[in-house]
Automatic annotation (TrEMBL):
GO MF terms, alphabetically ordered: glutathione binding; glutathione transferase activity
GO biological process, alphabetically ordered: glutathione metabolic process; response to toxic substance
Assigned protein family: Belongs to the GST superfamily. Phi family.
Keyword terms, alphabetized: Transferase
Name of protein: glutathione transferase
E.C. number(s) listed in UniProt: 2.5.1.18
InterPro entries membership: Glutathione-S-Trfase_C-like (IPR010987), Glutathione-S-Trfase_C_sf (IPR036282), Glutathione_S-Trfase (IPR040079), Glutathione_S-Trfase_N (IPR004045), GST_C (IPR004046), GST_Phi_C (IPR034347), Thioredoxin-like_sf (IPR036249)
Phylogenetic classification of the source organism: Eukaryota, Filasterea, Capsaspora
Domain GST N-terminal: 2-82
Main EC class the enzyme belongs to: transferase
GO cellular component: cytoplasm
Domain GST C-terminal: 89-212
Catalytic reaction annotation: RX + glutathione = an S-substituted glutathione + a halide anion + H(+)
């Protein structure tokens, strides 16, 4: 019986977004390993012309890339199976999209920069990180998370008081931030910290981590 496929690596932060959505919807899948070297080769470029990962292939052969596009597709395709991550109500759905945009435009750039300098460069690429850049990005992220703290003081989740794609999207890079030297940006804000503990304790996220 055909199963969905993820072309990429389980350690890829963007692949983890996709895995989380699949686990939330109880969709079986398998990995087709593609290394960092192979993403620039013709076979993978035919699937993803920008030479990035992951690519998602559904059971019918349909392929889509870009992790945020993939998780939207999974939630729409498998709606009613497992946990729906975007409400049917148009106003509630708009709030999910609002916070997804906040994640993409505000949280993600600063967090990615911090994680790149403090985790990926020294541990993955074996080069020295730029700590001045990490500190500058941490200052930006602190102001962003102050807004989260205020919002989460009145809400358990980012949108509609229920777990959604908006929360899910924060997990892959947020995990590296939380357990690194800038983890205090989360733990020092009680409502952000409570939200973070809430979403990382989901069994589906624990399944994602088991793939590492």
């Amino acid at each position: 019986m055909p199963v969905a496929k993820i072309y990429g690596l389980p350690l890829s932060t963007c692949a983890q977004r996709v895995m989380m959505a699949l686990h939330e919807h109880n969709v079986p899948f398998e990995f087709v390993p593609v290394s960092f070297a192979e993403i620039k080769e013709s076979a993978h470029l035919a699937r993803q012309p920008f030479g990035q990962m992951p690519v998602f292939e559904d059971v019918d052969g349909f392929q889509v890339y870009e992790s945020r596009a993939i998780i939207h597709y999974i939630d729409a395709k498998y709606k009613g199976q497992g946990n729906d991550l975007v409400p049917a109500d148009i106003k509630q759905a708009a709030l999910v999209e609002q916070w997804l945009s906040v994640e993409y435009s505000n949280f993600n750039p600063a967090t990615t920069a911090i994680v790149t300098e403090t985790v990926f460069k020294p541990h993955l690429f074996k080069i020295e990180g730029d700590m001045a850049n990490a500190e500058a990005q941490a200052a930006k992220l602190a102001k962003i998370l102050d807004v989260y703290e205020q919002h989460l003081s009145k809400n358990e989740y980012l949108a509609n008081n229920q777990f959604s794609l908006a929360d899910l999207a924060h997990l892959p890079y947020g995990q590296h931030l939380a357990r690194g030297q800038f983890g205090h940006l989360i733990t020092s804000r009680p409502h952000v910290n409570a939200w973070w503990n809430r979403i990382t304790s989901r069994p589906t996220w624990q399944k994602v981590l088991s793939h590492q």
